[in-house]
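Bench log, entry 3. Co-assembly request; chain sequences pasted below exactly as received.
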Amino acid sequence: MSRSDSYYGQPVIKEPTWTWEIPMYFFTGGLAGASAGLAWLSELRGDDELARRAWASALGGLAISPLFLISDLGKPSRFFNMLRVFKVTSPMSVGSWILSGSGLATGVAAANAWTGMFPRTSRVARPAAAVLGLPLSTYTAALLTNTAVPVWHEARGSLAFFFASGAASSAGAAAVALTPPKYAAAARRLAIGGAVSEAVTNEVMRRGLGMHAEVYKAGPSHVFDNISRACVASGAALIAARGRQSRAAAIAGGALLGAGALAARWSVYKAGFGSAADPKYVVAPQRERIERGESRGATRRDAKVSAPRRDLATPATSDGR
Amino acid sequence: MSHETLAWPDSYGDKAKPRMGFFTDTTVCIGCKACEVACKEWNQVPMEIEGFSGKSYDNSGDLHANRWRHVKFIEEARPQNVLHVDSEGLATYQEGDGLRWLMASDVCKHCTDAACLDVCPTGALFRTEFGTVVVQEDVCNGCGYCVPACPFGVLSKREDDGRVWKCTLCYDRLKDDKEPACAQACPTNSIQYGQLDDLRERAEHRLARMRAAGQDEARLYLADDDDGVGGAGAFFLLLDEPEVYGLPPDPVDARRDLPKVWTAAAAAAVTLGAGLVAAVFGGRE
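Structure output for the full assembly:
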């Protein structure tokens, strides 16, 4: 971008200060959320072998998720300040409550599935965990799109579907890997359906991004995207071809699919950094909005007074110095 | 000329004060950086040595946790319509050799619709009785959400401390009826502090006078309630497009798209639920 369109090429907005724990959490939160849904529905259908294992993945994801989030905080000891308020304008606030509720419900449900403890409480906890798992898988997209980072904000209609697809494929993948193949039919369908949906929603998101899609074609975001596509395609193919017959193939396919979903979160996460670092992604679309007449912008050249008063038009402080 | 538009009376009731702000008139900024120094001194903002940047006289970079006022220098070999400097100081930037030299002291905008405040999950960021936006350092847990939410890139985390810091518009001084440190230190009154209504009136007259004197590039930035952040408590008189000063030309509080954001998240959650049902119950076995 030319020199006069920016201040020495410096960024206009700040890059996030988040660290590696955040994309890891996007993965573990989605895995846990969709696993809870898979677990409860499998129970309803009578697939107890699958259900128990899906509850285990849900609990595993929910046990590690808060650790990632707390570790990322500048003041980890103040984690509970997240629960001082509930603000619908802050997806992180809403998400903290969803995560807390999910964690409690899933803990009770998983304990019941494996040990039979909490028989009464778990009747409420199991559906609650399954239902809370759905927004747990998608609010993280709201968290990213509700920022000033162009590549995230411009994906506000599509990113949630990409994340939901990743949650489905990773929950399916974990269940495929953990469950003996003869009980894992539903998990295989979820894994393969999620993988197909991941590929489709990724493409839909790119097409809606316009110039911002460039960010996904460069640097770490591009590398993670390539890893993700390769892992998702090979994992899904392996599960589809051999997952029913071979436990080894199921484990390998599940691991590949999971790695693919994780790399996809990293790709999205890293894209935000590239988007924030280059002022052209911030300035050019705003300038175009003004030129197309969709916005008047934040500047005004015409004064609201025609005959300026000299005493007011001379720089002075409020005390008249 | 007192208008007394109260700041957020719905929140503060009879404790609401008139909304206070900054009018930064960049046409008379001389780049002395007294504002940067006064801010650091008063607020005890940690030292941060950037070294030689090669960007004119700007050796301090940008606004962040350890710099709440930042003076920008735009020095370009480019012909400029330099106004005659009359005895009342219409313009003070340098003339000679076709050089254009703009200086501007940047600061937190204290937006009417403040994205940082909207997204803060702990309530650490709040709206004061003066209408300013302040971080409570005893509440902030360093989640960092406000950092990418701000459309102006004002907020960042202090590395050794973990919390987010920014201009408070000298909240402590305001409570004592004192002017913020930067405005008090400014030798040319480029930084003017006062009731926002008064400052806006003053700015209109200043703009009209600049235009009448032939300075066609003069413009107000963030001086109106109908922009993407609902106007700002700290607004500016600029001599070129905002992006030349590293400012966004059409900043928008992300909250304006929040209904779409939540609708998408909810729709995706429902779709995921349907997908799970299909996977579990949709089999042939």
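The two ends of chain B are 81 Å apart (CA to CA). Chain B touches chain A through 116 residues (CB under 8 Å).
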